[in-house]
Amino acid sequence: MTNSALTVLYRAPEPEVLAALAPRAQMSDVESAAARETALALIAAVRASRGPGWIDAFLQEYALGTEEGLALLALAEAYLRIPDGDTAARLVSDKVGEGRWEAHLGQAGSLPVDAATLGLVLTRALMDAKRGGVLRGLVRRAGEPLVLRAVSTAMQLMGAHFVLGRTIEEALDRAGDDGLCSFDMLGEGARTFPDAERYFASYLDAIVHVARVQTDLPLMQRHAVSVKLSALHPRYSLANEARAVPELTARLVELAQAAARGGVGLTVDAEEAERLEVSLDIFARAAAAPQLAGWDGLGLAVQAYQKRASAVLETVSAIGERTRRRIPVRLVKGAYWDTEIKRAQQQGLPDYPVFTRKAATDVSYLACARTMLAANRIAPAFATHNAMTVSILLQWIGARRDVEFQRLHGMGEALYEALSERSDLRCRIYAPVGGYRDLLAYLVRRLLENGANSSFVHQLADEDVPAEHLAEDPVAAVRAANFTSHPAIPKPADLYAPERTNSQGIDMTDRATLAAFQAKVAAHWHGRHTAAPIIGGVEVSGEAKPVRDPADTTRIAGTVVNATRADVARAAASAAAAAPSWSATPVATRADALRRAADSLEQQTDLFAALAVREAGKTLPDAIAEVREAVDFCRYYAAQAEKLFAPDVLPGPTGEFNELTLAGRGVFACISPWNFPLAIFTGQVAAALVTGNAVLAKPAPQTPLIAAAAVRVLHQAGVPKNVLHLLPGDGETGGAIVADRNVAGVAFTGSTATARRIARTLLEDETRPIAPLIAETGGINAMIVDSSALPEQVADDVLISAFQSAGQRCSALRLLCVQDDVADRMLEMITGAASAWRIGDPGDVATDIGPLIDEAARTKIEAHLAANKSRIVWRADASAANANGWFLAPAIVALDTPDQLQQEVFGPVLHVVRWKGDEFPALLDGVNAAGYGLTMGLHSRIRQTADLVRAKARVGNLYVNRTMIGAVVGSQPFGGEGLSGTGPKAGGPHYLLRFANERALCVDTTSAGGNARLMSETG
Ligand SMILES: Cc1cc2nc3c(=O)[nH]c(=O)nc-3n(C[C@H](O)[C@H](O)[C@H](O)COP(=O)(O)OP(=O)(O)OC[C@H]3O[C@@H](n4cnc5c(N)ncnc54)[C@H](O)[C@@H]3O)c2cc1C
Questions:
Q1: How far apart (Å, rounded) are the C-alpha atoms in residues 903 and 932?
Q2: In this predicted model, what pLDDT tens digit does every residue of 257-269 receive, in sequence order?
Q3: d(C-alpha 606, C-alpha 506), whole Å
Q4: 202 pocket-lining for ligand 1 (C-beta < 6 Å)
Q5: Distance 824 CA to ligand 1 centre (A)
Q6: What is the pLDDT of residues 493-552, one digit of tens each?
Q7: Ligand 1 atom closest to 456 (CA)
Q8: CA separation for the pair 847, 240 (Å, rounded)
Q9: CB atoms within 10 A of CB 550
Q10: Which of 278, 732, 904, 919 has its CA 20 to 30 A from that of 787?
């Protein structure tokens, strides 16, 4: 697919995109007056109609802005999937306990809502009376208590409101003859190939059933079916397009053929922005399939909230032209806005793919609608519940009848009823079909849409919002704001402003950016990378040894000259001599050097990513994250140092001046690991430098090349050459550095055993000052999953936590503890999803798991697996990986109890234990008992559970309902306790203090003959 407008617009500046769209969305004065009049009439009709149904009243009363609304949303999301009564009761007690329900009593003016409120108030009262124990007691005594039954019924009612039927037969039955539907088979995106098969079968089944009804009508007047491509393939992404595009095209063509045979329209739903380009590719290929030639039933949805919407329409028109067909396009505003904003921020991307003002989305919608109405190759369908949007469209549609409106089942009924009295335009209902398990994610989307303040339907139901406000022209609104983006949504780069700039990511979801980046990275693979001791800025010559590429050991990533003992002594002496003047240099100068280094690293992301791939076996996304983290460390420590090193004037009696200042300790040794060869290396060095220390930096023996490149960057950025020295080498070199008397402190990341050795060495010389050791070591990291967790989310997060980076992160998940009631289903999904991951060359963007760092690592882990052979319940197929690489097929090992895992297994091996509901506290004790305390994960929707884990877990980093790797500098300071490290946490506000000496100054200001200030101030 080549449409450069797609690339240009993807994350273009909002004002530019909007300014270009506004003229197309502009109404004439006559149109504007007419649209406003229609909108006001429609709004009045909807508000005057029988009043909102109970569900509207319910959502109005419990808006998402309130604690109670959020509690209900959480309840709706999780309740129905929990199989065991005890956890269900805990969830209810948790969520009901969070709200002040009494305030809602009698407020909604709707009998069912007030009754529901009363139920919630009573439940709460019951809980308060017996401190929450009552519910659980009831469950045990009565089996199925009244309260739980009531909640269950309420959730099912809510489901039934938004879902047309549990099966396609039931949905067709309920649809009857009068409503025109597009049926959607509900479900989370497929995580496994068997899931994808199941969804495919259910779509096919739906098509077959729909084909049997309304057989005498033309295509556009018959029911249709909507599909989500994410349901048809577990690896549906740009990175995996080589595989996903042909496979998904084949599936889509199969479905479309069945639809064409049955005379049923088929629409591809729009999903996340990062999948847009791939989805267009698949759509274009399917449209070109000879089997579908001449069939006008294959359509797609286009999201107006995306800046690329107009370019998508251009692309669709071109496909229609090429394949000589009219393509049904459903224009929607878009359902994933919050997710899009968060993702762009997390990935540090240049800008958002979506607009940041609601009115901007409306303007884009109108501009797109105009384009669609003018396009020969597009059959327009407008999906909206917004009366003003509808009213404007009516002006432009005029007498045309080849256009349809669409609404969601359970929403917009009153609007479309009122509309049907004014117009005979066709209206289709998007009708989700699915059982309770599948409806939850959809239900949450609908509750969000109904409950959000920005949403039209929410405002329509709120009588306090004047109708005139709802009928405002969005073009006028964006013009009034000068097309600017929303001030409350900073650009991803400004997330941490004004303190520092966020590190830049590479947009791996944009085909052009990805291709350019890959090419740049690949160009560095064949460079002659070298590392040697760098002492006083001079690279020492010596015997150069090859550094092997772990993905293919016949390849050489570069060469290294290791430091000798004499090099160590020379570097240490030079550092010691340089330290005092560096410490006396203003902190702003030191901080500026780090900022310049950060910018330089960022500009050379391709070089550093290439080194991380070839030298450390990192996958491309991991390599980018590695560079970003190094950049963040530099900028964060620069800002922190300026804050901390500002002299602190302290209080005291009159006539006395007290001040606390910080100074460098002298020479710091920074000894870093191979698994974050740039990020941790740079983090340690940057912290030591900015606090005024001279540094002896020793990278891991496996990864000297990237470290040497980083040292060159730091020198170029203004760090004096005699202040920072590089000493590549092995444990012996490390030992010599630590033993040097000039060394006044050590920052170390690596194994617990080495940390102990360092500590002992530091104490050996009785005459040497006691030097601080900051050690960050390993952990046996557990993730606890209870039955309220969402299996798809758990599967995603478990795989990332356990297998990303081939499990070679100290934060990685080693021990998964799953509640027995859901363990079978969770494990099926985890193993199914893991089987779809690709093991291979980390330089290939489609690779999920690269090699281990070296042969020793592989041998050790294979030995562990051999010792636990009978417990292995799943093993990946790594046969496609290069036989010359240090690859290891990931494995899952079932254990009976947590204590069967006694040591950290540093690779892609996940251990699993099951636990029963009442074993929860003992489980936590068991995990703590290992003595490590680095990371822990929890997947639970129950806040009390999270609170309990937080109170009991002795870990440095606890992650709830997310992955447990990827700590972000300044947001999740990282580091453990117990056997896992000494602290303070890297990337946190206390880290730098350990690198500094504190100096207090006290001056008697009266010594020169009296307290002049006191006397003059009180005079
Ligand atoms: C028949 C039908 C099919 C649908 N199919 C899809 C689909 O395939 N894919 C999909 O993604 N959605 C789909 N939707 C959902 C659709 O995106 C939502 O219904 C839409 O959010 C509501 O639009 P509206 O005009 O009714 O409401 P309005 O309240 O007028 O608009 C809400 C829109 O504004 C956006 N918005 C809110 N705040 C901001 C802000 N600060 N900046 C920018 N934008 C903001 C929201 O994200 C939402 O898109 C479908 C909807 C219908 C009716």
A1: 10
A2: 999 999 999 999 9
A3: 10
A4: no
A5: 36
A6: 999 999 999 999 999 999 999 999 999 999 998 778 999 999 999 999 999 999 999 999
A7: 29
A8: 8
A9: 30
A10: 904
Q: What is the 3-state secondary structure (H, E, C) of 690-709?
A: HCCCEEEEECCCCCHHHHHH
Nearest to 468 by CA among 947, 907, 36: 36
Q: How far is CA 565 from CA 23, 343, 540, 579, 740, in A?
A: 73, 48, 13, 21, 10
The pLDDT assigned to 4 comes to: 87
Q: Provide the pLDDT for residue 88.
A: 85
Give the residues across from 329 on adjacent strands. Answer: 300, 380
**CA distances for 870 relative to 342, 780, 827, 865, angstroms:** 43, 21, 17, 9
Does residue 107 sit in helix, strand or coil? Answer: coil
For range 756-764, the mean pLDDT? 97
HSE-CB of 135 using CA atoms within 13 angstroms? 27
Can you give 598-634 as a three-state secondary structure string? HHHHHHCHHHHHHHHHHHHCCCHHHHHHHHHHHHHHH
d(CA 637, CA 989): 9
Taking all residues of the chain, what is their mean pLDDT, rounded to a whole number? Answer: 92
Measuring from atom 9 of ligand 1, which residue has the nearest CA?
A: 270
The full 3-state SS of 903-962, as one line of letters, equals: CCCCCCEEEEEEECHHHHHHHHHHHHHCCEECEEEEECCCHHHHHHHHHHCCCCEEEECC
202 closest CA partner among 247, 167, 176: 167
Q: What single-letter DSSP state applies at residue 189?
A: P
Other residues' Cβ atoms within 10 Å of the Cβ of residue 615: 28
42 CA to centre of ligand 1 in angstroms = 19
Provide the pLDDT for residue 78: 84
Q: From the candidates 776, 792, 817, 904, which is the catalytic residue?
A: 776
Residue with token string 């396609």: 168
In the set 181, 427, 810, 817, the catalytic residue is 810
Is residue 776 annotated as part of the catalytic site, yes or no?
yes
Contact partners, residue 347, CB within 8 Å, separation at least 6: 492, 505, 507
What's the pLDDT at 875? 97
Specify the pLDDT at position 114.
61
Count other Cβ atoms within 10 Å, centred on residue 261. 12
**CB neighbour list of residue 522: distance below 8 Å, 6 or more residues apart:** 610, 843
* pLDDT digits 0-9 by tens, 56-74: 666 666 666 677 777 777 7
Cα 477–chain centre separation: 32
Check whether the bond before 498 is cis (ω within 30° of 0).
Answer: yes
* 449 Cα nearest atom in ligand 1: 21
Return the sign of the alpha-carbon dihedral for residues 574, 580, 585, 588.
Answer: positive
Q: Which of 829, 823, 816 minimizes the C-alpha distance to 784? A: 816
Closest atom of ligand 1 to CA, residue 335: 11
Element (H, E) at 529: strand 529-531
Q: Verify whether ligand 1 is closer than 6 Å to residue 228 (CB atom).
A: no
Structure tokens at 427: 């209206």
Task: State the Cα–Cα distance between residues 229 and 277, nearest whole angstrom.
Answer: 13
Q: Which residue has the tokens 């009823």?
A: 417
For residue 166, the CA-to-ligand 1 centroid distance in Å is 24
Candidate from 42-46, 110-114, 775-779 with smallest mean pLDDT: 110-114
Q: How confident is the model at residue 121 (pLDDT cuts 50, 70, 90)?
A: low
Of 313, 244, 233, residue with least CA distance to 285: 244
Q: Is residue 858 over pLDDT 90? A: yes
The answer to whether the Cα torsion of 713, 719, 721, 724 is positive or negative is negative
User: Is residue 465 scored above 60 in pLDDT?
Assistant: yes
* Distance in angstroms (rounded) separating the CA atoms of residues 571 and 564: 11
Measured in angstroms, how far is the CA atom of residue 383 from the centroid of ligand 1? 9
CA 418 from centroid of its chain's CA atoms: 42
